[in-house]
Amino acid sequence: MEKENLMNAVVADVTARRKGGRKTGGFTLRDVAKLAGVAPITASRALNTPDAVSAKVLQKVQAAVAQTGYVPNLLAGALASQKSRLVAAVVPTLSGPMFLETVEALTDTLAGAGYQVMLGQSGYENSREDALLDAIIGRRPDGIVLTGITRSPQARRRLLASGIPVVETWDLTPTPVDMLVGFSHEKIGAAVAQYLHAKGKKRVAAISGDDERSRRRATAFSEAAVRLGMALPQETDIPACLVTAPTTLGNGRSGLRELLQRAPDIDAVFCSSDLLALGLMIEAQASGIAIPRQLAVIGLGDLSFSRDLQPPLTTVRIDGTAIGSTAARFIIARSEGKSVAEPICDLGFTIIERASV
Amino acid sequence: MEKENLMNAVVADVTARRKGGRKTGGFTLRDVAKLAGVAPITASRALNTPDAVSAKVLQKVQAAVAQTGYVPNLLAGALASQKSRLVAAVVPTLSGPMFLETVEALTDTLAGAGYQVMLGQSGYENSREDALLDAIIGRRPDGIVLTGITRSPQARRRLLASGIPVVETWDLTPTPVDMLVGFSHEKIGAAVAQYLHAKGKKRVAAISGDDERSRRRATAFSEAAVRLGMALPQETDIPACLVTAPTTLGNGRSGLRELLQRAPDIDAVFCSSDLLALGLMIEAQASGIAIPRQLAVIGLGDLSFSRDLQPPLTTVRIDGTAIGSTAARFIIARSEGKSVAEPICDLGFTIIERASV
DNA sequence: TTGAAAGCGCTAACAC
DNA sequence: GTGTTAGCGCTTTCAA
């Protein structure tokens, strides 16, 4: 049979290639094309732009693909077309559950458009960031999504020089490297102070991770609190209790203990994450402090568990999913040659009122 | 000056390339080589195997790199060398915090060896898995790390045919596709039953996510419980209370309520995740049930918060970090041409005794 | 609608 | 130690 002979010939080709020098992979587009009796470029078109070939050719190519189990080499395609369909995402760490939603939404939205996400962890100190950036740029992704804004001029220059679309997230700045999807940490701090003040709180404090963004929220919170005439713990210059990032439940417990020593009469605490807030609630319960009657708590993140706590946790909701999917859309648009009309996007935040305040 | 002329010439080259047809990227290895006055391959060696070139050449190439800001195109390198230094990781979802540690350890360990991680989310139903697999294989990663074992024969065949090293994780099977790093869910179920029995518990139940692995743990738990003479809730055939995966704190609360209706006299509950256990503890506290006096709880995962709960949570510890770093080592070894001596690795588990039982 | 030629930017293999 | 040659597997451009 003709068809069998062809297949045998192609298999022989592959085997020969494997032996002769480099042990190169399996079937290639050329093999598929040969089997289908067309030129490689035609097979390529059948796979990438099926509308551009005749029904007959399409069918023959599809048959050849099925027969061989051919999977296109996207590396080669990327090299030739200058489109890698790869997007890099850089987070400080995965384990603070804050960025998870964003990475998840990013991955899902991009996967729907045929892109894959490459993950990078920078750590909270930006030391590894430069090396990471080179590793990323070297792969020529179609986009880079960064958590936080880029401070190092070195990194900014490299990003700019690469010409790769960049989305900075989880923060706001008038001078982004390229595009931006975030919200204002300062406004959150101020809004929380205002909220607690409106609820009649008089002596407030913050338990805050000591990463840069949390500190800015805590500072804004303290300044607004003072402006509104609320009292802060006085024993120290720092108006907040700082714990190491990423924040944990244990930090929340020890944070409350420390806070109560410094200022036993506080009536509200702003925690820089819901996990901290949960720790605080557990510690409060263990020490017989009633929430919200004796002490009000407000967290940040609106993690999935927050609504189900006892009492349900009042918190600042940040829509991590929207950040991820917006960033994905920005990158996809750019990568398809469209320019993004409004490349700076403030997604804001919402204070979710529940029973803990 | 000679040097400046050279640089100008090279820049002119790049500009010409950009105009003439394809708007190709920035500096290439050829430009760097030209600037350094050596052949491209020599520049390549200076970058990849610095020991293989003279000090003089090395210095000249490094100068040229610094001058141009050249970042090697790893896509092209991968195509030529058949080594992508990319590893794919597939998880059902990122948001159950169980797999986070694994992904984190994988990313970190691989980054140390110059590899990047590509992330894929398969969802708990394996429908998207086949498409995802093709997208992954198409990028010719040097390794694929899967969460769970691969059941679909279709997927197994494709993985095998690809010739890419595969590590299946978070489970055990005598017939892995390739390599395996995991533990036995059946043994966990049995061990927990045994543990509760040893603690004098008589009427036990399980609250379990309804994903495949959790169900197997719950089943093994129930069977062992019966064998040991403990009572299970009787109203239903299912010996456990199933909640939708991924498990949440809210599920834990509602799970306990449901369980208490069916069997008000239970004295111990095995939760398929620490998050469920936390929900159960919160619900118990809200209903005035004392833990562990009236009801003992054991979770699974030993998440970072578990030790800090009130009471601290007894749980089954699974070393997600070890799974990730072992998988990474397996892949690195393979990808360096070494064969992995013992490619099936049972990392086991530990019951961490705390106060909740 | 299809194809031939010419690369994408790099490295393996084999000289020198 | 360094260079020459010839691809890796695909897509672009241009011609038929």
TrEMBL record, chains A, B:
<dbReference type="InterPro" id="IPR028082">
    <property type="entry name" value="Peripla_BP_I"/>
</dbReference>
<feature type="domain" description="HTH lacI-type">
    <location>
        <begin position="27"/>
        <end position="81"/>
    </location>
</feature>
<dbReference type="GO" id="GO:0003677">
    <property type="term" value="F:DNA binding"/>
</dbReference>
<keyword id="KW-0804">Transcription</keyword>
<dbReference type="InterPro" id="IPR000843">
    <property type="entry name" value="HTH_LacI"/>
</dbReference>
<dbReference type="InterPro" id="IPR046335">
    <property type="entry name" value="LacI/GalR-like_sensor"/>
</dbReference>
<keyword id="KW-0238">DNA-binding</keyword>
<dbReference type="InterPro" id="IPR010982">
    <property type="entry name" value="Lambda_DNA-bd_dom_sf"/>
</dbReference>
<dbReference type="Pfam" id="PF00356">
    <property type="entry name" value="LacI"/>
</dbReference>
<keyword id="KW-0805">Transcription regulation</keyword>
<protein>
    <submittedName>
        <fullName>LacI family DNA-binding transcriptional regulator</fullName>
    </submittedName>
</protein>
<dbReference type="Pfam" id="PF13377">
    <property type="entry name" value="Peripla_BP_3"/>
</dbReference>
